Amino acid sequence: MSLTLTNSPIESHCFNLPEGDGVQLTLAPGRLLRGDPDRRDWPHFESADGKVSSGIWSGTEGAWRVEFPAGQYEFFHVISGTGAIVSDEGMRKPFGPGDAVFVPQGFRGVFEVSEKVTKQYMFVQNV
């Protein structure tokens, strides 16, 4: 097996904190479990094929269902706030400032915010 490397320009995207109001996100009523969270997104990058996106997300207190289909993954780094992801099997993973979280394809469960969370995220899908 051989590997071919090519030189290409490197495009970097640095983003640390949200600027401005961001894009307000809504939840389908069937997904909302608790609270009335204000969820906002500050997208910073999306690949031309739509398979990779990154940015900053922020949400206030609440809980809602999440389901990751086959081929969709998320990595996020918590800037501030506290919360947890809880799988349908009952495995609870709390997170807070400085934590890095990986959500695998096929994950089904609940995303909880205890104290307003701001995170840097990267989604990879359809791979």
From TrEMBL:
Record-annotated (S)-ureidoglycine aminohydrolase cupin domain positions: 47-121
InterPro entries, per database record: RmlC-like_jellyroll, RmlC_Cupin_sf, UGlyAH_Cupin_dom
Pfam families given in the database record: Cupin_3
Name listed for the protein in its UniProt record: DUF861 domain-containing protein
